[in-house]
Amino acid sequence: MKPRILLAVFGVAAVTAALAMVTAIMPQAAPPGAALAAQPASATTVAAVTVAAVTVAGPAGEARPAYPDLNRQLRYGSHGRDVKALQRRLAALKYYPGALTGNFSAYTLEALWAFQEVQGIRVSGVVDAATARALRHPRPYRARYARGGSARVEVNLRARVLVVYRHHAVALISHISAGGGYVFDRGARAVTPPGHYRTTAYLGGWIRVPLGAMYDPVFFIAAAYAIHGEPTYGPGGGGVPLNPVSHGCVRIPYDVARFFHRLVKSRGTPVYIYLRHSERRLVSPSAELSRPR
Known about the structure:
This protein is of the alpha+beta class. The protein has nine helices and twelve strands.
């Protein structure tokens, strides 16, 4: 999504109204590649998948299953019982690996990226000896805003992960692709602005705007910046690749977007976006929107 042009040309109120109108009158056609992304996460509903894969670990402090020793490296395209064990382990640690089928899918790849990012090990998308050791003895995500609310979203731009907290506990950790830093239309720069925000609205389905499409977006700056889904497929992650490539929004895997909006309030959930743990300055939405990028 390209928020600066929308705001500059139409203004926040007009953009909000336009998005509402688009949602009401346009058919929710999927963009290219969505057919691959839209494969069901499992034979159950999305809600059941969420319960199975995101909350499998139970209450904080409950013993998690040990991760077995591996006889081979696992990567995209692998399949077997050892892949299913990997998926169960990632799910127990609050990463979303997709359906627990034993097939190393794009969603399993995205979950493994996020795990490697949090562990501070080489992000290869491959379960090698170092990653297997980390799966057996993982370190928890280090919260940046532990006093930021019992329910909140933290987006770590440097680590390229999004973390959802519910009742002061981690409910989900997901890989993201944020602003790529490049210059696009008329000198605008693709930046996801660090700062402290709150969710403002949720729009279901594929939302088409003049500059692209978003799946199940949850906005956090007016109708300009959102956390939204993108088609997720293939060894490169599809629309949510390893590197930051968006125009400023926070992209999450398609299947994660299908239930992400159920983990947060559509209005009012704190969203903290930051670059590093030592960062202290917070940018207000009004200040950021008025600053040239």
